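SAMPLE LOG
Freezer: B-3
Tube label: C17
Construct: single chain, 331 aa
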Amino acid sequence: MEDVLNSNAAANVYGKMDESGKWHALFGPKDRKLSPSALSNEEPITYDVYIDSLHCEPPGMQDLPKKERSAVWKGVTDQRKAATQKFTFPGEVKSTLRLWRSNGGASPHRLTLSSITDLKDVLLEWQQFVQGEHACKPRGPFLQRLRESRTTPLTGCMYRDRERLFFCRGPCVSAYTLESTVLSEVHGASADVIRKELSRMPGFNTVHATSFATLDNDLEQYFAGSGHVGGVVDFYPSWAQAAERRIGGKVFPISTEDDRFHVFFDDNIALGDEHSIVDVRDAKTGESVLGVAREEPFCVPVNAYRAITDENYFVEALAHCLELQCALPKK
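STRUCTURE (predicted):
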C-alpha cells in the first residue's frame, strides 16, 4: 500500500528545482490549472519525472551482457524507489503531503487494493463482469449479447529479445516465471533453444517465432477462437535490460486499414518518447510508430490519481481515442 501511495503522489505533485538542483513541491493535481509562469520561470515537473531524470541509465549499460544489464537497472530502480519513498527532501515532507491531501490525494482508508496478480485473475474478473456477477453490477443489451456468445478466453505470453519475438500460446503467466537463464541472460540464443525453454511454460500449447509485421495477424487468428477475448503477458526483463526503452517494451501493432479499434492503457506510456513501455508498430510494415500525434489516438498514459478519483476516467479516455481514430484517414 505504501508503494502505491508514494508513486501515486509522486506522479501528481508538481514542483521546481532550485539552484542546487533540489526539487521543491509547489502544487497538487487540482491546482495544476494555475499558470506555471506565476509560480516558476520554468515549467513545473512532477516529482517522479524529477527522480527518473536524477537516477537514469548509466553510460555503457547497453554494451553489457544481459545479466549485467539487469543488475545495473535493478540498482537504478532501487534508487528511484528509495527516493520516491522519501518523496521529497528533508524538511519538506509535511508540506508536500499537505499539498497532496488538500488536493484529494488518495489515502489508505480510501483505497481497496485488488488481489489481481496475473492474467488468469484479470480474465476471471472480466467473466464475472460479463455474467453480471461483478461488484459493479453491470447490465445492458451489449453485455447480454456477450453472455449469449461467451466462450472461454484464450491466453498466451510473449518473449522478446530486441528485434526477435516469440508468441507462446496457452500460458497465462509471464515467461519470466520460468527463471530461465537462457531467456533472461543469454544473448542470441537459437530459435530452437528458445522454443524449447518456452515449451516448459505451464499451460503451454504451441510456440512460434513471429515479427513486428506478422504479430497482428497471429493475434487476430488466435483470439478469433475465443470471440476475440483474451490476453497476452509480456516479458518484463527485455524492457528492464533496455533501460525502459520501447525497443524492449510491449509490442502493440496498429492498423487503420480496417474497422478495428486499437487502444492500449498503461501507466508507463510516454507518448513520443523512446523511454516508454509500449512499442507501437505498423501492423502491416512492422515499422515503429513514434510521435505524440501519431501515438495519441492509440495509447493512453494512465494517471493513477485520476483513475481513482474520477469514475469516468477510463470511459472518457477510451472515447477520446475512438474519436481520434475515427478521424484518421483510411489507408
